[in-house]
Input
Amino acid sequence: MKILNCGALVVALALSAFTSASAEPVKLRIGWVVAGADAPFQLFGPKGVATHENVTYTIEGTHFNGTPTMITALATGEIDLAPLAYSSFPLAVQNARLNDLKVISDVFQDGVPGYYTNEFMVLKDGPIKTLQDLKGTVIATNGAGSAVDIAMRSMLVKNGINPKSDVTIIEVAFPTMKAQLQEKKAALISSVRPFSADPELRAMARALFTQQDAIGRSQMIVMTGRAATLEKNRAAIIDFLEDHIREVRWFMDPAHHDEAVKLLADFTKQPPARFESWAFKKESDFYHDPAGRPDVAALQANITETNKLGFIPQPMDVQKYVDLSYVDAANARLK
Output
């Protein structure tokens, strides 16, 4: 009888191993807004870098125009992971009441020494020479309460300019910012990559200040997910983050620059010339942490500033919403 039990156990273990080996990869539904910034590099990266993709997980990328609809998709369970800005993450927790939302990794940072920082630009030959000259003018932002907008308003306040009464702030999509400045409909525009790399814009405009000038280092975008989803797919998400780290290191390696630009250009259906002067270069692109770890101190400072400016109703202790065990486990394999 014992022999039969042992035999049954061997068969059961064999079947279990077969089932595990033949299990379908976990589908990770991930939102994104801008390719080359917050979109997972696996969506357009070279073959062979992401070793777990299509083995233990697959990616279903969903493009969004901005984070508000991404927050809704998280709340309704339409996506599993979402890259959120430091300004939208607390909105998801406090306004959308996603109290189980967790920060699991870095996506990219602004204002890191030696890397790119967003620019706020004025005409080179225009009347705006100093921040004080902005009083009484029209200023263009991409959206009230966005990460870029928070930095702009913070700079105004620090220089004694009331964003509500001393200037008129209008909302303008990034692709049309240049026209607003060129046609003198706005005295100052918010400019981000890839738009700030436009040779025509740089010929006519200059940076009055940068996001780094305004608020220092910014944890611009973090990868987030809800606790139940994260725990359910823990193994696959660790594999995803391990591949993410591999991809970041590959794309930021100068030896791969030309190929990296071509991959991004092919994915976005844009000419490589739009990216080759700045994308994936240390001095001209954003900082992607090579270990995938967010700067939690910067994130806390950024969210505190968002609260001070009145865009979130309450202060937030960010540590309560950070779980780096996933990215730490991914890094442990790469040492």
Summary: Residues 2-21 form the longest helix (20 residues). The CA atoms of residues 22 and 286 lie 40 Å apart. Residues 13-21 have pLDDT under 50 and may be disordered.
